[in-house]
């Protein structure tokens, strides 16, 4: 077990002992377990999955949608600093879907580089939220 | 003695002023509450960002990396955070005094000064001083800026630093300590390596692993951490501004009340004196008729 702290710009989102955390980084997903080597890396857009107890199955993992940040592992402390982190329960799939479509529309209408980038960012973000929502749904169906 | 008409007019005018200051006080109070909550929410983020930054700056192999490398200082960039409007007590003048002292110091060391002003008041002040080069003014960040809103400021300060136009970047902001205590303070954001405490010394060398590689990690992380500090200092400043405005307006309202009390007393004395005099005149007249 090690300590995992997930802090977004709007406050601490997760702060407790966990067994395993899977993070999306620039180089692909990394899994962090107890006694991980000291590491500093960059979190990318994606899903953070948390296994709170070693015996929990994949179905019982907790998910957060995130859009990038910094990760630091040091002496069994995992600190993750991200712009935003949305817990699976705070995501409404219908809303995320609507926002995703709206972002797509924005992108198709974008006239300059800045608004195009902005729209793309929104699309990426909503895509991750949708992914988290579907993970959650799948779990409830089983 | 001032005439009754004049006193009445004066009291009415002060009552009008009191209504205005009272309204401003209430507005500031509600904004203050929001600003404080907002600043408190992001504090854990910026605290963690800061401690990570400290750890990183303690690593020997990073000492020569551009964000951490200390250069001889020829030009400094100050980001001065002030308010757009006045009537906030000593808020803006405190910043101005603090900044003036720094300018004096820089002048003695013949350091050139550039300024990015946040809020109109800082811009006015910087424009008045010839030796300062005012790079930009941001006066519409809104009540609750997000980290995204400060990104243009962040980009320009990093650009200035990386192309060697400036050798050091400091933020001047007002630290929110409590509702009644706020303090102007300075934090150095670039180079990011000066504040090394004994605690961080022990952690030197802990981070030997950077993924994918040192360059991209350091770039991303430093940018993010500077952003966190800039953003947090803006939020702290906003919370301070609204607190000070509320206190100033509360004092003004109280003062107006005292004045009204004083003038009312004077008015009553004057009216009583008038009545007494009239009575004396009447009874004097009666006595005269008797004889």
Q: Which percent range describes the beta-strand content of chain A?
A: 35-45%
The CATH architecture assignment of the domain at 43-245 in chain B turns out to be 3-Layer(aba) Sandwich
CATH homologous superfamily descriptor of the domain at 43-245 in chain B: ATP synthase, F1 complex, gamma subunit
Which word captures the global form of chain B?
Answer: elongated
Structural class of chain B: alpha/beta
Q: pLDDT average of chain A, as an integer? A: 87
- Spatial order of the strands forming the largest sheet of chain B: 3-2-1-4-5
Q: Bin the strand percentage of chain B.
A: 5-15%
Q: N-to-C terminal Cα separation of chain B, in Å?
A: 34 Å
Number of helices of chain A: 2
N-to-C SSE series of chain A?
EEEEEEEEHH
Largest interface, Cβ cutoff 8 Å: A-B, 25 and 26 residues
CATH topology of the largest domain in chain A: ATP Synthase, domain 1
Total beta strands of chain B: 6
What low-confidence regions of chain A span 5 or more consecutive residues with pLDDT below 50? none
Mean pLDDT of chain B: 87
CATH superfamily heading of the largest domain in chain A: F0F1 ATP synthase delta/epsilon subunit, N-terminal
CATH topology of the domain at 43-245 in chain B: Pyruvate Kinase, Chain: A, domain 1
Radius of gyration over C-alpha positions of chain B, nearest whole angstrom: 29 Å
CATH architecture label of the largest domain in chain A: Sandwich
What are its keywords?
heterodimer, A: 142 residues, alpha+beta, ATP Synthase, domain 1, 2 domains, 2 helices, B: 291 residues, alpha/beta, Pyruvate Kinase, Chain: A, domain 1, five-stranded mixed beta sheet, 7 helices, elongated
Descriptive report:
Chain A is of the alpha+beta class and 142 residues long. Chain A folds into 2 domains: 2-88, Sandwich (ATP Synthase, domain 1); 91-141. In chain A, 32% of the residues lie in helices and 43% in strands. Chain A has 2 helices and 8 strands; from the N terminus they run E-E-E-E-E-E-E-E-H-H. In chain A, strands 1, 2, 3, 4, 5, 6, 7 and 8 form an 8-stranded mixed β-sheet that branches. In chain A, helix 1 (93-109) runs antiparallel to helix 2. The longest helix of chain A has 29 residues, at 113-141. Chain A is globular. The model of chain A has no long low-confidence stretch (mean pLDDT 87). With 291 residues, chain B is an alpha/beta fold. Chain B contains 7 helices and 6 strands; from the N terminus they run ααβαβαβαββαβα. Chain B has helices at 4-41, 43-57, 91-108, 120-128, 151-162, 198-202, 214-290; strands spanning 75-81, 112-118, 132-138, 168-176, 182-190, 210-211. In chain B, helix 1 (4-41) packs antiparallel against helix 7 (214-290) and helix 2 (43-57) packs across helix 7. Chain A binds chain B through residues 5, 7-12, 25-27, 30, 37-42, 69-70, 72, 74-75, 79, 81, 83, and chain B through 41-42, 44-45, 48-49, 52, 55-56, 146-147, 206-212, 216-217, 220-221, 224-225, 228, 231. Strand 5 of chain A pairs parallel with strand 6 of chain B, so a sheet runs across the interface.
């Amino acid at each position: 077990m090690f300590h995992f702290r997930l802090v977004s710009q709007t406050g601490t989102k997760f702060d407790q002992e966990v067994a395993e955390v899977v993070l999306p980084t620039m180089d692909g997903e990394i899994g962090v377990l107890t006694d991980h080597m000291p590491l500093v890396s960059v979190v990318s857009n994606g899903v953070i999955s948390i296994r709170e107890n070693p015996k929990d199955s994949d179905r019982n993992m907790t998910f957060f949608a995130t859009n990038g940040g910094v990760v630091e592992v040091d002496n069994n402390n995992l600190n993750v600093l991200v712009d935003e982190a949305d817990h699976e329960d705070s995501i409404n799939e219908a809303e995320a879907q609507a926002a995703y479509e709206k972002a797509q529309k924005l992108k198709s209408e974008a006239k300059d580089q800045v608004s195009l980038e902005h729209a793309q960012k929104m699309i990426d973000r909503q895509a991750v939220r949708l992914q988290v929502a579907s993970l959650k749904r799948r779990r409830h169906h089983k | 003695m001032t005439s009754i008409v004049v006193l009445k007019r004066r009291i009415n005018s002060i009552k009008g002023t009191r209504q205005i200051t009272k309204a401003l006080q209430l507005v500031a109070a509600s904004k203050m509450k929001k600003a404080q909550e907002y600043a408190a929410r992001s504090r854990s983020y910026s605290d963690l960002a800061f401690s990570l930054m400290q750890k990183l700056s303690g690593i020997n192999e990073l000492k020569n990396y551009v964000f951490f490398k200390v250069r001889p200082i020829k030009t400094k960039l100050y980001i001065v955070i002030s308010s757009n409007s006045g009537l906030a007590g000593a808020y803006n003048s405190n910043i101005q005094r603090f900044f003036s002292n720094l300018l004096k110091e820089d002048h003695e060391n013949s350091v050139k000064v550039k300024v990015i002003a946040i809020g109109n008041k800082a811009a006015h002040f910087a424009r008045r001083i010839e030796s300062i080069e005012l790079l930009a003014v941001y006066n519409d960040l809104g009540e609750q800026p997000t980290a995204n809103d400060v990104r243009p400021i962040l980009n320009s300060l990093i650009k200035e630093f990386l192309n060697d136009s400036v050798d050091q970047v400091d933020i001047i902001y007002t630290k929110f300590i409590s509702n009644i205590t706020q303090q102007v303070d300075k934090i150095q954001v670039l180079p990011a390596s000066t504040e090394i405490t004994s605690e961080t010394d022990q952690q030197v060398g802990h981070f030997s692993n950077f993924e994918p590689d040192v360059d991209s990690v350091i770039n991303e992380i430093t940018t993010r951490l500077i952003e966190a500090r800039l953003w947090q200092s803006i939020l702290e400043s906003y919370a301070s501004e609204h607190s000070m405005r509320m206190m100033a307006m509360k004092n003004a309202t109280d003062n107006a009340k005292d004045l009204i009390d004083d003038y009312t007393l004077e008015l009553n004395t004057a009216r009583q004196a008038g009545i007494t005099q009239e009575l004396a005149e009447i009874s004097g007249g009666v006595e005269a008729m008797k004889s």
